[in-house]
C-alpha cells in the first residue's frame, strides 16, 4: 500500500511541483556523488538499474550511475566468470611430501650416494624421479652433494659404521679401604659390548700393559684378525711397543685427541656403569679381592645384563633365540646379593616329561 501510494502521488500534483521535486532529487544525487567516489553496488542494484535505464532518454542515460559502458563491463565480467578455469602452474606437479621425505632420508643415511645413485634406489622402490628433481630437493633441504656429505662424517657415525671392527681400551682406578689405589685395564669390543678385564695392578708400567695386550690377542685367537682399529687415549703407559703388538696383528691404533673423553665414549660409559653397579657399592680390601669382584662383574656384564644398545640383550645372548615364558623364574645372587640374575626354569611336570625316555612316553 505504501509503495502504490508513493507512486500514485506524483500524478495528483501539478507539473511545476513535480519538476521542482525532480530538480531537488537531482541536486541531492549530485551532492551524494561528491561524497562517494565509487559506490559499491550489489547484484540486485545492478539488475534494477539496468532494467530501468532502458526507459530513460539517451540524454539522461549519460548522467546515471549505470551507463552503457557499465552494462558492457558487467556483461564481459559475467562471461569471464562463466568460462573461467582454475589456473594451472607452469611445469610438472610438485613431488609428494612422502617422496621428498624419502629422498632426504636416503641422502642423510647414505652420505656417499649421489643424485643418480639415489634415483636408482628410488626406482627400485617404485618411484620414477629425475636426477634433477632429486638435486632440487636436496638443495632446498640444505643437503650438499655426495662428496661434501661424506666429508662431514662425524666421529659418532664413524664409530657406528665401524663398530664390528673396533676395540676400545682404557684404565679405571679403585680406592681400597686402606686408601691404596688399584688400577683396572680393560678392553671392550664395541659391536657386541663384550668386556675383557685384563688385569688389576697396583703400579702401572708400559711393559705390563704391553704384556696384557699380548694376552688379549692370545685369548681372542682367530677373532683377533677381525678387528682393524683400537681406540685409546694418550696415556704414557701406552708405549710404542703396545702399538706394535696390535700393528703386528693388522690392527691400527687410533689415539684420541687430548681431553676428548667423548672420542672414547664406549669405554668411558663402561667405567661409569661398573662404578655405579659394583665398585662404588663395595669396600675393596686388596688386589685379590678386586680381581675376584672384577671377574664376577665382567662375567655378569657379558652374560646376564641387558643392554639398551643390543635390544635389551646381553652380549653373549644369541640374537635369534627368543625364550618362551616359563612358570618358574629363579634368581641367582652375585657378590653377596649385590647383583641379581634371573633365569627361567620349566615347570616340574614339563621337566619330568623331558627327562622321561621317548619310548616310555
Kindly describe this structure.
It contains 15 helices and seven strands. It is elongated and about 135 Å long. With 361 residues, it is α/β, with parallel strands linked by helices. The protein has a five-stranded mixed sheet with strand order 3-2-1-4-5, with helices on both faces. The protein folds into four domains: 2-75, no CATH class; 97-153; 165-310, Ribonuclease H-like superfamily/Ribonuclease H (Nucleotidyltransferase, domain 5, 2-Layer Sandwich); 323-361, no CATH class. Residues 1-8 and 349-361 have low confidence and may be disordered.
Beta-strand fraction estimate: 5-15%
Structural class of the helices, strands and pairings?
alpha/beta
- Count of distinct structural domains: 4
Question: What order do the SSEs take from the amino end to the carboxyl end, as H and E?
Answer: HHHHHHHHHHEEEHEHEHHEEH
CATH architecture of the largest domain: 2-Layer Sandwich
Q: In terms of per-residue confidence, which ranges show pLDDT below 50 for 5 or more consecutive residues?
A: 1-8, 349-361
CATH homologous superfamily caption of the largest domain: Ribonuclease H-like superfamily/Ribonuclease H
Helix share bin:
40-55%
CATH class of the largest domain, anyone?
Alpha Beta
Which sequence of strands runs across the widest sheet? 3-2-1-4-5
The main sheet comes to: 5 strands, mixed
Number of helices: 15
Number of strands: 7
Q: Give me the Rg, rounded.
A: 45 Å
CATH topology-level name of the largest domain:
Nucleotidyltransferase, domain 5
